């Protein structure tokens, strides 16, 4: 069994690591440093960490102000408050002026677990996708999360980084892993269907691939860590070469990766797409592992959806 | 302040008011009332107070200005034009397709605009971020922002009001344009945000009440703000909406509409007559 680390843990560590290398990096938090893990940075660089209190709207705009003067602020809070509560601040004071603010949103998706529906943000990807010029990164594990933080630092412009609360298996090799912003990663080859996954769904997709292999079905698995801009080339060739697509994201099926893939394919290469995600409902309290099963984030469900996509191929 | 200096500032402020009327009239829409009420403060900021260089609008150590009440962009644009950031004639392109003079300020394309604003409450927080940035760089510039009294009904204003004293941002000065009117009527009737001074004082600010149309009071307030250490300053500037144009004076109805041709000509005639009398 691979080591399990929450991507938020990797985020906090990465901030502290890169704080030494990038002196313009500053971190803002909204009374959640202990949960978002920016406290790791705070310990290393107390003079460059600013708690804004429970005032997310103000925090996003303070970040914008810091960015106008050349700093690279990471503004951190839970995804619900970063993308939800402060949406309009992110849109008007960060997105519209295209300021160099990084939004480190933790506790995204259903794996928030016991806190329940008010804190399970399934809508953040959809919301952030609508902002012109916004880059959206959803890392699959701790290795990718660390690399994503540095890539965000080196990319000029607003970036939304999505991290999870729950510990998830490390699937990438830290020694060889290379992050390219906007480029998908081919995780495993396949010819009958492609599972396009993002975030913690990548690991579950790889397990679905094994189930399908047992039934003689060859499934390709692609990791889309950068949801916007989408790696169109990789999605289009997957559609061309396998003829059926399943998308998997720990978020609502409305407006996120599944929508991005569907929009692209319906305009450039009509292909059956079946989306795995939260199916237009609110979540509930429960352990993350159980909720993943309740809402269909299982290898079995992805495998079933893969077969459905294959059955929809034109004869 | 010497009388000659006051006269000079009054002439500039009147030119800025004429620019406001030109911009809004030519656009056929816009916000003249709150632009006219803040014109004297804008004049003092850009012609006396701020460390700026129109030939180098991105200079790192320049003082920053954020028009948090972004709908009064005509006041900002006319001030910038008269200070030499772009031609005064360009004010006539305000709100027109292809112009950088957007309905609400856009920092990406407009020389001298330090922050994009328009959605109320946000600019004040951005100004806090700028002031914090200056502190991190060794206190190399000051930050000024103008908020509206109607704008102070936004909850985010009070998030920022908490933040600035907490981080001892004594390089930040907020001017509250206290004209007492908002779109739906008198602020005290719509949603009473007063008393502004007591609220800011309770949040830990250095608070100064002034007459927004008196250059002596404006000067002493900004001087006191610069001298105040350890906390930010809020200048509550009691103003008159529509100041300088008789039929717009203290009228909520002139918050967000353009004059017709006859009204435009009357406004210009009044402002030019006043200018000649200074």
Description:
The complex is a heterodimer of chains A (315) and B (278). In chain A, strand 13, helix 11 and strand 14 form a beta-alpha-beta unit. Chain A has 315 residues and is of the alpha/beta class. Chain A is globular. In chain A, 41% of the residues lie in helices and 20% in strands. Chain B has 278 residues and is an alpha/beta fold. In chain B, helix 1 crosses helix 3, helix 3 packs parallel to helix 4 and helix 5 packs parallel to helix 6. The mean pLDDT of chain B is 98. The interface between A and B is medium-sized, with 28 and 34 residues.
What can be said about this structure in brief?
Chain A has 315 residues and is α/β, with parallel strands linked by helices. In chain A, 41% of the residues lie in helices and 20% in strands.
Q: In terms of topology, how is this protein built?
A:
The complex is a heterodimer of chains A (315) and B (278).
Chain A: E1 4-6, H1 7-21, E2 25-29, H2 33-36, H3 39-44, E3 49-51, H4 56-68, E4 72-78, H5 79-85, H6 87-95, E5 102-106, H7 124-129, E6 135-137, H8 142-154, E7 159-162, E8 167-169, E9 185-188, E10 193-197, H9 201-214, E11 219-223, E12 226-228, H10 232-242, E13 245-252, H11 257-268, E14 273-278, H12 288-294, H13 299-311
Parallel strand pairs in A: 2-3, 2-4, 4-5, 5-7, 6-7, 10-11, 10-13, 13-14
Antiparallel strand pairs in A: 1-8, 6-12, 9-11
Helix pairs in contact in A: 1-8, 4-6, 9-13, 10-11
Chain B: H1 3-27, H2 32-37, H3 39-49, E1 64-67, H4 73-83, H5 122-136, E2 143-148, H6 155-166, E3 172-178, E4 181-182, E5 185-186, H7 187-191, H8 196-202, E6 206-211, H9 215-227, E7 233-238, H10 261-277
Parallel strand pairs in B: 1-2, 2-3, 3-7, 6-7
Antiparallel strand pairs in B: 4-5
Helix pairs in contact in B: 1-3, 1-4, 1-10, 3-4, 3-9, 5-6
């Amino acid at each position: 069994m691979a080591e399990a680390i929450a991507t938020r843990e990797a985020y906090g560590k990465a901030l502290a690591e890169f704080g030494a290398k990038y002196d313009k990096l500053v971190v803002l938090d909204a009374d959640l440093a202990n949960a978002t893990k920016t406290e790791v940075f705070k310990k290393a660089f107390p003079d460059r960490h600013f708690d804004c209190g429970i005032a997310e709207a103000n925090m996003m705009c303070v970040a914008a102000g810091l960015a106008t003067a050349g700093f690279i602020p990471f503004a951190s809070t839970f995804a619900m408050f970063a993308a939800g509560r402060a949406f309009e601040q992110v849109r008007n004071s960060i997105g519209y002026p295209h300021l160099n603010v990084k939004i480190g949103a933790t506790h995204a998706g259903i794996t928030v677990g016991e806190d329940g529906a008010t804190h399970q943000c399934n809508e953040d990807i959809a919301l952030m996708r609508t902002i012109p010029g916004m880059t959206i990164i959803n890392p699959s594990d701790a290795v990718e999360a660390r690399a994503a933080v540095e890539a965000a630092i080196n990319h000029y412009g607003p970036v939304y980084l999505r991290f999870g609360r729950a510990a998830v298996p490390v699937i990438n090799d830290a020694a060889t892993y290379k992050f390219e912003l906007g480029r998908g990663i081919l995780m495993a080859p396949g010819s009958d269907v492609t599972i396009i996954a993002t975030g913690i769904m990548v690991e579950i997709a790889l397990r679905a691939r094994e189930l399908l292999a047992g039934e003689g079905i060859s499934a390709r698995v692609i990791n889309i860590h950068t949801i916007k801009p989408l790696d169109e080339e990789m999605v289009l060739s997957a559609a061309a070469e396998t003829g059926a697509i399943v998308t998997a994201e720990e978020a609502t099926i409305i407006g996120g990766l599944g929508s991005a893939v569907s929009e692209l394919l319906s305009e450039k290469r009509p292909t059956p797409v079946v989306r795995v995600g939260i199916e237009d409902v609110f979540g509930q309290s429960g352990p993350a592992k159980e909720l993943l099963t309740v809402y269909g984030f299982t290898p079995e469900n992805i495998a079933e959806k893969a077969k459905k996509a294959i059955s929809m191929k034109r004869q | 302040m010497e009388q000659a200096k006051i006269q000079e500032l009054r002439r500039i402020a009147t030119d800025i008011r004429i620019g406001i009327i030109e911009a809004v009239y030519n656009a056929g829409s816009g916000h003249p009332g709150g632009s006219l009420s803040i014109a004297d403060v804008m004049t003092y900021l850009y012609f006396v107070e701020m460390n700026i260089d129109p030939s180098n609008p991105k200079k790192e150590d320049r003082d920053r200005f954020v028009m948090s009440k972004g709908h009064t962009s005509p006041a900002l644009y006319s001030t910038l034009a008269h200070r030499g950031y772009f031609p005064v004639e360009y004010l006539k392109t305000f709100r027109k397709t292809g112009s950088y003079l957007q309905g609400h300020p856009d920092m990406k394309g407009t020389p001298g605009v330090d922050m994009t604003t328009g959605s109320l409450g946000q600019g004040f927080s951005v100004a806090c971020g700028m002031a914090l940035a200056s502190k991190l760089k060794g206190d190399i510039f000051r930050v000024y922002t103008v908020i509206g009294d109607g704008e102070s009904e936004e909850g985010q204003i009070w998030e920022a009001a908490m933040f600035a004293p907490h981080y001892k941002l004594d390089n930040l000065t907020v001017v509250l344009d206290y004209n007492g009117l908002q779109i739906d009527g008198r602020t005290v009737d719509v949603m009473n945000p007063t008393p502004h001074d007591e609220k800011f004082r309770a949040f830990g600010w250095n608070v100064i009440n002034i007459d927004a149309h008196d250059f002596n009071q404006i000067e002493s307030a900004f001087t006191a703000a610069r001298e105040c250490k350890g906390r930010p300053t809020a200048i509550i500037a009691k103003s008159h909406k529509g100041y300088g144009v008789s039929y717009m004076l203290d009228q909520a109805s002139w918050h967000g509409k353009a004059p017709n041709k006859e009204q435009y000509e009357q406004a210009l005639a009044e402002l030019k007559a006043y200018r000649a009398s200074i």
